[in-house]
Every structure is written in structure tokens, then in C-alpha cells.
From TrEMBL:
<dbReference type="Pfam" id="PF08544">
    <property type="entry name" value="GHMP_kinases_C"/>
</dbReference>
<dbReference type="GO" id="GO:0004413">
    <property type="term" value="F:homoserine kinase activity"/>
</dbReference>
<keyword id="KW-0547">Nucleotide-binding</keyword>
<comment type="function">
    <text>Catalyzes the ATP-dependent phosphorylation of L-homoserine to L-homoserine phosphate.</text>
</comment>
<feature type="domain" description="GHMP kinase C-terminal">
    <location>
        <begin position="209"/>
        <end position="284"/>
    </location>
</feature>
<comment type="pathway">
    <text>Amino-acid biosynthesis; L-threonine biosynthesis; L-threonine from L-aspartate: step 4/5.</text>
</comment>
<keyword id="KW-0028">Amino-acid biosynthesis</keyword>
<keyword id="KW-0418">Kinase</keyword>
<keyword id="KW-0963">Cytoplasm</keyword>
<dbReference type="InterPro" id="IPR014721">
    <property type="entry name" value="Ribsml_uS5_D2-typ_fold_subgr"/>
</dbReference>
<protein>
    <recommendedName>
        <fullName>Homoserine kinase</fullName>
        <ecNumber>2.7.1.39</ecNumber>
    </recommendedName>
</protein>
<dbReference type="GO" id="GO:0005524">
    <property type="term" value="F:ATP binding"/>
</dbReference>
<dbReference type="InterPro" id="IPR020568">
    <property type="entry name" value="Ribosomal_Su5_D2-typ_SF"/>
</dbReference>
<dbReference type="Pfam" id="PF00288">
    <property type="entry name" value="GHMP_kinases_N"/>
</dbReference>
<comment type="similarity">
    <text>Belongs to the GHMP kinase family. Homoserine kinase subfamily.</text>
</comment>
<dbReference type="InterPro" id="IPR013750">
    <property type="entry name" value="GHMP_kinase_C_dom"/>
</dbReference>
<dbReference type="InterPro" id="IPR036554">
    <property type="entry name" value="GHMP_kinase_C_sf"/>
</dbReference>
Amino acid sequence: MKEIKVFCPATIANISCGFDVLGVALDSVGDEMVIRKTSENGIRITRLEGQNLPMETLQNVAGVAGLALLAASDYSGGFEIEIYKKIKAGSGIGSSAASSTGAVWAMNELLGNPFSKLELVQFAMEGERLASGVSHADNVAPALFGGFTLVRGYEPLDIVPIPSPSELFATVIHPQIEVKTSDSRKILKTKITLADGIKQWGNVGGLVAGLFTNDYDLIGRSLVDYIVEPIRSILIPGFDEVKIAAIEAGALGCGISGSGPSIFALSKGEEKAVKVGNAMREIYQNIGIDYDVHVSKINLDGVRSISS
Ligand code: ADP
């Protein structure tokens, strides 16, 4: 095989209570990429459509993640990359992670799968380092493994795939405002109280248990963030109203996707997820902010090949 076309899913990181450790892959929103083997060594981005992003290999997360894989491989050739962005950069649904993940997964396929998924996460994390200055795995892990993932630890990297109940759907609304990832990190406190910690890790345990046992009520009760959301939500106009509207429309829970400004909700069943999307939409219509809405089932496979 010389060439492969892949679907690279958008992802929701944090999922309310799991700041920096939980993430989930989406199915109906993601980028497409074409990766091609070349005889000359190195990586070239030959096409980039849909978003205004750098095409230089060292400035693009797909190039940087791909170079990390090349450096660890004994392959003497190189790759050409075409990127068709559907996910808006800086939206909070893992735009950079989709490109990093798509690149390394496709290259691994073209080389006959010499690397494990865990190794691919580590290469893709180099792309995340370029995008945000921190080589975090909470978006790239679900993009590669599919479903929900827990980053249990970094030293050594330990990723735990978590099953998803079959009727679980995600709704994401992306208000078209700019929230810089660096700003949304800067405003966070570096210390938390023991009381908040106890409530928060109770919820992380509850959410993971609910996902394993298909207990939708437990999932809903656990989708509460005592630590980050109260601070970060200040940067997202209309956040409280959107959250109230989503819960009133029947969502199990609602919170900030990644570092925002996208807001996600989880619901039981697609019909409910669509209703939740309509309720969220109404809030931004009234405020007068443009938005995109995505309703998606949980993507259990992660990045995958598609026919060209
Ligand atoms: P999101 O908020 O959707 O997770 P990120 O903050 O992860 O988005 O990434 C956006 C940043 O990464 C932008 O600064 C963008 O210029 C940079 N970037 C570099 N290459 C890419 C790429 N291929 N796709 C998306 N973003 C990229």
C-alpha cells in the first residue's frame, strides 16, 4: 500500500470532572487526510484545505507528529500529507489532535503497523506540544483508541480504554468566539481544596463506573466539575444559560469541551441529543453569536481508513 485516506475524529477532552485525564471520540465530525509514501526522506505537507494553517512541516502538528514517528522507525523513505480540515482550529474539540493522530496512524498503516497504539499516542503528543506547549494526551488518546479513554498517568504513559453505553450521544455547540488555550490555562488556580478534590474524584470514579455498567443516571450525576468549570466558564458568554437549557431539554450533563469555547452535552438517545442541540442553539441565537452544532454518536473505533 502506497497511499491511505483517513477520517480523523474530533474529540471532547475533560468531560466535566476529568480535567486533563478523560476524553471521548466523536463520529460525525472530523478531518480527512491523505498520506502517501515517497522515496525521499522527510515529510511534506502538499495540500491543506478548510482552515488557514501553516503548511511548513515544523509548524504543522501533522508534520511534527509524523517526524517523531519517522525518527523512531527504520524506514528510509518519507511521506506526503494532504489535510482536509473540517474541525475549526481552536474550537476546543481537538483540531490539532485530529491532524497529529491521523498522520501517525496512517503512516503506521503504510509501514505495516510496526508501532503500538501507545507508541502512536506518544508521537501524536509531539504535535500537541507544538499546538499548546504541553504534550498532553487527553485528545490524542481517544482519537487513536476510540470511545472514552482515561490517561491514568504519564510516567510511564498509561492509557485505559473505557467502554461506552450504546445509546450515549454527544451534542457539541461551538460559539464562534475566540478563547485562547493559553488564556484558559492561565486563569486556572494551581491549588484546590481537599473538599473540592473529594467531590471531584468521587465524580471521576462515578463516571467511569457508569460507563462500564451502562448506568445513565450515574453518568449524569457524575458529570459535574467543581474545579475548572466555575473559573473557565467566565470566558464563554452564555455558558450558564446553555447549560441550563441543555439539562432542561433532557441532557444527562453538560460542560466545557476541552479548553472551550465549545460546550458539550451527553444524552441518552439521538432524539434527545438533537433536542438538546436545538435548546443550546436558541441561546446563541438570542445572544447574537454565530455557532455550529454537532450531534454525534460515540466513535468506538477512533481514526480509521476511508475509501478515496
Ligand atoms: P482545539 O482547541 O480544537 O483542540 P488546538 O488548540 O488543539 O485546537 O490547536 C490549535 C492550534 O494548533 C492553532 O494554534 C493552530 O495554528 C495549531 N496547528 C498547527 N497545525 C495544525 C493542524 N494541522 N490542525 C489544527 N491546528 C494546527
